[in-house]
Amino acid sequence: MNILILEDEPLVAEQLMGHIHQLAPHATLAGPLASVQEARAWFQKHPEPDLILADVQLSDGISIDLLVALKPASPIIFTTAYDQYAIRAFKVNSIDYLLKPVQYDELQAALDKFRELRQQGSSRLSLEELARFLEGKSVPLRYKENVIIHSGPQAQRIEEKDIACFIKRDLIFLQTLDRRVLVTEYRSLDEVEEVLDPARYFRANRQLVVHRRVIGGYKTDLQGKLLLTLKIDVSETPAVSKEKAAAFKRWFEA
């Protein structure tokens, strides 16, 4: 049995692979692959595996989006801390959905389910089965703190303490406190918002998600918009619309 691992957290990947070596000692493992970019390149060069274990949120995007695009026949066991991806996961050949930290016995049950379904010639769960599996398994969301920036074959980790804001132009950029502007692989600021801690970041407008640490204050203009005073220079106007002004004030003053 060939198993592909998609996981961007080294310690989690190591734990998963250790569990699999015990549960399926004859399995051949590929990966771990930490990014959508790596996974896409892997599928271009290799035949589809018998099974995929995929973290929903990889270093540069959502694995579900890639798998929807590639449409592999391989059944998939998703691992994640994000409950809201459950139904999307179900729609991509998902045979199980394990919430982190992945427990040995739950992974064992998922692999047993995979073997049973394969013997039956089926790789899918019913929606009712998935809902029953998820019942009572809600855990606090764990947000991305560090961002991986890819430039050709090079990968660079940007620590959360160095992030100032995210900017939408033709692409999604990350600006650091020392004024570096780096291209990310996020496709939209909506996608950025999904993985950031809302206690630390605020979506000021369509072009800007800003970290709390760089906001010095604000003033209200004649139209009711808030003009933010930032501790760094950004090319986009740091303004909050009248409709979001009250929400921003509550967030900023919390």
From TrEMBL:
PANTHER family: REGULATOR OF RPOS, RESPONSE REGULATOR RECEIVER. Residues 2-115 form the Response regulatory domain. GO terms for biological process: regulation of DNA-templated transcription. GO terms for cellular component: cytosol; protein-DNA complex. Keywords: DNA-binding, Phosphoprotein. The lineage of its organism: Bacteria, Pseudomonadati, Bacteroidota, Cytophagia, Cytophagales. InterPro entries: CheY-like_superfamily (IPR011006), LytTR_DNA-bd_dom (IPR007492), Sig_transdc_resp-reg_receiver (IPR001789), WalR-like (IPR039420). The modification 4-aspartylphosphate is found at residue 55. This is LytTR family DNA-binding domain-containing protein. Pfam families: LytTR, Response_reg. GO terms for molecular function: phosphorelay response regulator activity; transcription cis-regulatory region binding.
